[in-house]
Amino acid sequence: MTGSAALAACAPAPTVSPDDPVSRYGFAPIEGYGPLQDGGYDLPPVPPQYLAWPNRRQLVFYEGERPAGTIEIDPYAKFLYYILGDGTAWRYPIAVGRAGLALRGQTTIRQKKEWPGWTPTKNMLRTQPDVYGPFAGGVPGGVASPLGARALYLYRGGRDSYFRIHGTNDLRSIGNSGSAGCIRLFNHDIIDLYDRVSIPTEVNVRTEADSLRLLGPTLSPRGVELPPTIVSPESIYGATEVAVEDPGV
């Protein structure tokens, strides 16, 4: 044994303080994305590698034309804007699934829920039975739900469109596209957005041409398409306070 190895072996074990986030999580949380208690659940901080610019909530100058108090979704640049009345907007990074890419034009948020449960639609079960079949009976609300901490339900007229704006535990998806899903945000961001949104709130989806015109080729399009994620039923139904990857909503 070398001298340096002997010294290391005899050194006292480091003390881990439960109040020190670096000791607990291995990194210093970023403001707005730190440990969070919500609805009886302890949400861990979002690791910094998922929050590299522009993948974090920001107050920005709003370059679009939509009125204050509404939401605009840019599925190409992977942003959602909550528009304020002073020429600014809160901009949130999003993930956009294949279903989300089919979202067009205008919808209205007519319902919102905290820690919602989730049941796959008949179309999901028919088209991707290997992904959604194990969850046909539904997933209860909580940290294991693919809808995350909050969900905003989009309607056309008086009918549910089955499109959702919601949270996710699949952190790597934010800023990218998935093979399935609607419009997903970090749980920290959907909680922030939820508290700003009233019922009803109008939601507009940008066209590809408008996205490129307003943001330019540096930001539009942005991200890559990720492969589908298949999750065992045990990891969903057995979860308590452990984050799991969602099967795509």
Automatic annotation (TrEMBL):
Keywords: Cell shape, Cell wall biogenesis/degradation, Glycosyltransferase, Hydrolase, Peptidoglycan synthesis, Transferase. Pathway: Cell wall biogenesis; peptidoglycan biosynthesis. The keyword Endoplasmic reticulum does not apply. The keyword Electron transport does not apply. It comes from the Bacteria. Residues 69-206 form the L,D-TPase catalytic domain. It holds the Pfam family YkuD. InterPro entries: LD-transpeptidase (IPR050979), LD_TPept_cat_dom (IPR005490), Transpep_catalytic_dom (IPR038063). The active site is at 166 (proton donor/acceptor), 182 (nucleophile). Belongs to the YkuD family. This is L,D-transpeptidase.
